[in-house]
Amino acid sequence: MKINMSENVIKHSSENPFQSMISRFDKAAKLIGLDESDYNVLKAPQKTVIVNIPVTMDDGKVRVFEGFRVVHNANLGPSKGGIRYSMDVNLDEVKALAAWMTWKCAVVGIPYGGGKGGIKCDPRSMSKGELERLTRSYTDLMFNVFGPDKDIPAPDMGTGQQEMAWIMDEYSKLIGYSSPAVVTGKPIVLGGSLGRVEATGRGVMVSTRSALGKLGISPVGSTCAVQGFGNVGSISAKLLAMQGLKVLAISDISGAYYNPNGLDAEEAIAYRDSNNGTLEGYKGGEKITNNELLELDVTVLVPAAMEDQITEENAERIKAKLIVEGANGPTSASADDILNKKGIMIVPDILANAGGVTVSYFEWVQNRLGYFWTEERVYRRADRVMKTAFESVYAASKEYNCSLRIAAYAVAIKKVAEVEKLRGKFGV
Ligand code: GLU
Questions:
Q1: Of all helices (H) and strands (E), which one includes residue 117?
Q2: Pairing of strands 255-258, 286-288
Q3: Which end of the chain offers a freer environment for a tag, N or C, measured as fewer CB atoms within 10 Å?
Q4: C-alpha distance from residue 380 to each of 42, 90, 202, 209, 388 (Å)
Q5: What is the 8-class DSSP label of residue 280?
Q6: pTM over 0.90, yes/no
Q7: Active-site residue among 80, 116, 186, 415?
Q8: Domains plus CATH for the chain?
Q9: 248 in Cβ contact with 263 (< 8 Å)
Q10: Per-residue pLDDT tens digits for 345-372
Q11: Cα 182–chain centre separation
């Protein structure tokens, strides 16, 4: 099935994601009085690698794919961040995503820096064999970048457990022994962690609960709309429903689906899984557009699809009381002011979706220990990390009298800059 991504997502911000990241970084840097040297160091990525990856396709022809890995900062520990397979991948996007990983890891207090990778490709139109050859060749070309103590990839949009298994295997072959800690988000049998698949959605749910608490709103009887029905969106919808919220709308690349009486998220997940991974033809709600979903009158809006969905063009029409950013960069910087003026609370991406990298960290710890935790322990520890991070960002927003987003950047930048100073050197 061919799906035109551009039909069902809105990308109309005048800024690119890197500019959006920098504009928040600038605001927070000013607020905390970051000195000029630290500012200059933290603004730019430490390492940018671009490779051309030749892959023999099933028809025997060789195609060359452009691949990236950006290490934004590795002061707090090895750089950490996913690998994205999408036709929209470009250097500015990967640079922004890498910086967001630095801030994200610092906000939740895990000992990692930030990195991100991507390959410009359309994974839906490629066979399993083609994807395997692409992933292995990318790993070969990134051999000097990756490493359990250097740079640790993970899944992101368009990648999942199978790609992580190939990366683990290829890297292990190159060093001559099994190295599960080089990558996270692996299948459980290969050293993956229980709870990793649910981790980002679970963190979205925990942050939603914390934020609703601050707003004095009970989750029971509240409503939500979730944009995106991949790993993050679908699990967020399911867990929010379990907290008593009514899920009024969901969406994926096939469109958005609305039911004023509430949709059954678990049923929608089962439908998607039996339907080639898409909601196409889903009958649990009437078809609406993605724009209409974003503008629904709900308590909570969870954008969990991709960047630049809420921009200066539609921000004025957003009616939710709370936005919890499951995706990275779903709100452009120019939309922030409009939403803030409207009094909408936003739990920013670098806090709201940090549950994923938190459990990635737990996976890496378990790999290095060679000792595996129960699902209950993973959840308990991840929930605690998310709750503590939310409270520290909330406290910073009161201290600096700013939005949760700028407070999250402030907390993160302060921490990374402090380490920079203590280490007394710039760079890895
Ligand atoms: N891709 C996910 C993110 O953006 C997870 C990264 C990781 O687990 O390293 O947070």
A1: strand 113-120
A2: antiparallel
A3: N
A4: 33, 37, 11, 15, 12
A5: T
A6: yes
A7: 116
A8: 44-192 (3.40.50.10860), 194-428 (3.40.50.720)
A9: yes
A10: 999 999 999 999 999 999 999 999 999 9
A11: 19
